[in-house]
Amino acid sequence: MTKIDDVARLAGVSTATVSRALRGLPTVSAATRRRVLAAAEQLQYAVSPNASRLAGGKTGTVAIVVPRITRWFFGTVVEAVEDFLDQNGYDLLLYNLGGREQTRQRVLRTASLHKRVDAIILVATPLRPADVAALTKLDLPGVIVSSGSGVPGWPCVRIDDVAAARTATRHLLDLGHTRIAHISGDPDDELAFTTHLDRRRGYQEELHAAGIRTDPSLDVESQFTIDGGIRATAELLSRGEPPTAIFAACDEMAMGAMAALRDAGLRVPQDVSVIGIDDHDLAGVLGLSTVAQPAAEQGLLAARILLNPLGVRGADPYPGLVPPAGGAGTDGAAPTPPVILPTRLVVRESTAPPRAN
Amino acid sequence: MTKIDDVARLAGVSTATVSRALRGLPTVSAATRRRVLAAAEQLQYAVSPNASRLAGGKTGTVAIVVPRITRWFFGTVVEAVEDFLDQNGYDLLLYNLGGREQTRQRVLRTASLHKRVDAIILVATPLRPADVAALTKLDLPGVIVSSGSGVPGWPCVRIDDVAAARTATRHLLDLGHTRIAHISGDPDDELAFTTHLDRRRGYQEELHAAGIRTDPSLDVESQFTIDGGIRATAELLSRGEPPTAIFAACDEMAMGAMAALRDAGLRVPQDVSVIGIDDHDLAGVLGLSTVAQPAAEQGLLAARILLNPLGVRGADPYPGLVPPAGGAGTDGAAPTPPVILPTRLVVRESTAPPRAN
DNA sequence: CTGAAAGCGCTTACAG
DNA sequence: CTGAAAGCGCTTACAG
């Protein structure tokens, strides 16, 4: 447990100089720096983060809050964020809400994050007004990924969920389907979580644009999971004549739908077409048609945006993208419009024209 | 940014008393405690982790190191660990190695973890002798999950990989297969990572026990991923007459194999049976037979074991299990035998008897 | 049961 | 370019 004093003694300088040399501050002579580094190396010195952060006022840590790390999208986002932060010397504190309201309150409501992290990334986290108030009062930089409801001053990175849903629905329409079901998330369960609401809206808009009346019996709510997809599809099939196509709000639901259809003796795509949104790792293996969204890119971009104001290298938060209006700088309180990343249709084997009746 | 002094002033007590009251130490009168809590509540006070940790010598943080958070097993383990730690007031620092040697060195070799965490969980992390030496010198409690190579004094939680592989192989033998291929991980890539070596050994042992000679052309090495499974299977098929069954070392490889077989025009299980190990979330959807391993349980148990010596409630690390020999206490340096969790065969639709020739 | 004081291991103005 | 000193916000013996 060597401390900075030990290094200072061995190098024959003050602790202030050791501190400066080790952090690469320019106000240290080359010779001194060399001696300090040698001493630190020899003693296997590692700075105490707590002491350093307490004295310096920075935590060197970013918190990321996700609903469930085991779901494809969230795992992929976390991995991308961790990668970037790691390369820039930041620690990542993981908060996996996992539906626990207690955890949610502790993370979002208490000031526990205040003195613990320099910044926050919120991924698809539904926010109640009280949450927004608490987060605002934290007065920390933050970024929202994949969510409509925001915190004032926090930039937003996402896809256009309405457009993605319209693309999926249009693909089915283009194939000739008219009895198109939709399975999506449960609003009661997810509070202000807008993703599934937007996707449902896209589904409805595209149907309307095609002159097709939406049929409530073809619109089933369930959870954004494999099991949710299974249950929603079972429910759908129990309602009578099956649809010729199912648009699932995410790939995991779509995969559940494929399983449920198979168990019901229906073939995909001969009897029922299935399409999702995501381009999950396993979509290819399952032959699932989908609207691909860039998950890792959203995470990376969020991390970049965050570390930029913190004065980290690898800056330029908007690689090739134009931050829609709003201007070029760190305008602070100005309501930043969301950065929208592109999606694209990926056609595989799970979608086909309906059987000639 | 209220601090402890503010609370002390408002409550009319010393900071020492505030500290004690807030931490629930018994040496505070009920009346005083009430006043302190009220004051803290009113001021929205939250302790500064850095100051607390610096003064108290504990970090309240556990580090978890995983190869890739996006792989099913690792994501599931992390989620279980995070859950338990969160409920016990610990933070989780996530290190996702992601194949980056640089990250690996930084995490494992430098003393960076030393003053940063109270304990470490290493999941399926291959360790070189230098890593072991560095970790040992850290002198921190740790637990190894799912790995054969250990750090002296660190308990180990895992399954019996040899036995799991034998179970999978035996299932294929029982169905009547004799041309059984194996696809597994690349030893060069994974260093001392013993999982795939053990699984290969189980495969070979079971074949030998059945009097079947192992055929090197049926044993292909690739990566422990979907793509790895695809590539391995393609390689296998390029070698001539296909096997009648494939035992993949993990479900993700098995899923890749299913996709590759389909692309080659081979049906599962009619032409080729496929079995994996894991019981991945999507195994059911894909109808994949597998040998299930308890991933969340391994994570939970690891977290329990770790927090036990740290004096955390929810103690009893071995729920119903007997820590094989070794004794009951915290014997410290005594080489702890690994805690082995059970696996079980799950038969679905991807395995069937070979076609009558 | 409670307080005054020292100390945790750094970093940061302030001088020089 | 470098050092002495104060301070970051807590917790911990030590007294009482």
Automatic annotation (TrEMBL), chains A, B:
Pfam families, alphabetized: LacI (PF00356), Peripla_BP_3 (PF13377)
Keyword field contains DNA-binding: yes
GO molecular function, a single term: transcription cis-regulatory region binding
Matching InterPro entries: HTH_LacI, LacI/GalR-like_sensor, Lambda_DNA-bd_dom_sf, Peripla_BP_I
Keywords, alphabetical: DNA-binding, Transcription, Transcription regulation
CDD domains: HTH_LacI, PBP1_LacI_sugar_binding-like
Domain HTH lacI-type residues, every copy: 2-56
tRNA-binding recorded as keyword: no
Protein name as annotated: Transcriptional regulator, LacI family
Organism, scientific name: Micromonospora eburnea
